[in-house]
Amino acid sequence: MLLLRRLAPLGPKFPGVRWRNFSLMEYAGQWSSTEKLQFQADMRVISDFVTAEEEQCLIWEIEPHISRLPYESSHWDDAIHGYREVQRRKWSPHNRSVLDRVCREACGGQVMPFVHILDLAEVGGIKPHVDSTRVIWTS
Fold it and tell me: For the chain, how many structural domains are there in total?
């Protein structure tokens, strides 16, 4: 099974959190209704968690480094295709504060020393997989 990229949030279930509008979600392959519901039940989307300005600042900091890299056709575990990646430890103070906020919400404040950045090509994709222990948090 392959899940393709997008999802759009809907009305609030909790303050600042939007849930359950999957109109922009695309499933490739065979997904039963039960599998789709199970997958969607584990999602949480926080509306405007990273602002457009914050996103642009992150991109400006990353772009000079990642734009020099070619897109790779496949990953060592065959989970990613059409991508380029970098790992970064040092960030501007503004971007560090954004990443710290993401870390607090997504990982309970526990982080690895490097931020792992993936840039997918237009035709790139990530297959369902379990990450190696070297790239996941302990939460």
Answer: 2
